Amino acid sequence: MIIAIDGPAGSGKSTVACILAARLKFRYIETGSMYRAVAWKAQQQGIRPEDRDKVAAVAQTIAIEFRPGVDHQQVWVEGQEITAQLKTEIIGSLAASAAAIPEVRKVLTEKQRAMGREGNVVMDGRDIGTVVFPNAEKKFFLVADPVERARRRYDEMKAAQPDLDLEQVVRQVKQRDYEDENRAVSPLKPAEDSILLDTTQLKIEEVVERMMRAIQPVSNV
Ligand code: C5P
Fold first, then answer.
1. Per the domain annotation, does 214 fall within a domain?
2. Residue 29: which CATH number?
3. What spacing in Å lies between the alpha carbon of 220 and ligand 1's midpoint?
4. Which of 95, 99, 178, 187 sits most deeply, having the most CB atoms within 10 A of its CB?
5. pLDDT per residue as tens digits for the range 114-154
6. What is the C-alpha to C-alpha distance for residues 52 and 44, in angstroms, rounded to an integer?
7. Among the atoms of ligand 1, which is closest to the Cα of residue 33?
8. Distance 34 CA to ligand 1 centre (A)
9. What angle do CA 162, 168, 169 make, to 5 degrees?
10. How many domains in the chain?
11. Ligand 1 center to residue 98 CA distance, Å?
């Protein structure tokens, strides 16, 4: 069974996807980390985001692995754990540039399909219900007010970046929405058969409960 969760940055996808996967005893695959890992490796190699062929070559050769961690899933690239390094806004923005390259999407989509074929998974991203697994048994599309989404990001990043300004994060979130919704390949949009959840006013637990209620008739869990 495949559960697809899509939505914009800060809509709560990865938090609820991780809890949901643990409840269902499914694997959790955060596809945003894969785009971030490609961006990270390209940056390490001094490749500029506009060198699209070189970024695509990184996507073709990179070995990305998810491993269970103590309180979160770890991302490993070629023997190195890079989970924390992927969380920065710079890598997020480079990931959005890499994600607009058709060849990068093609390669990562194939990797995601292969991971899905291994068994029960909860997969989150921007195009899981529309492109990667259009036949997923359950699809959710999470949305939330952009200022609330920026506030969540701000709370996460504030400790590591004390100079951070909320207004700046609001601008970054809106910029990322624009890029994700307007790219030519696999733009962010809800699948027609997805369940739309607005998380602006909801606690994490409430979102998970609503999803569990939607899943139960299908999975009998
Ligand atoms: O979800 P996260 O913020 O980690 O994703 C980083 C970027 O990767 C997104 O802004 C988006 O451009 C891209 N992405 C994508 N398709 C996915 C997952 C992420 O285009 N399935």
1. no
2. 3.40.50.300
3. 31
4. 99
5. 999 988 999 999 999 999 999 999 999 999 999 999 999 89
6. 15
7. 4
8. 8
9. 80
10. 1
11. 9
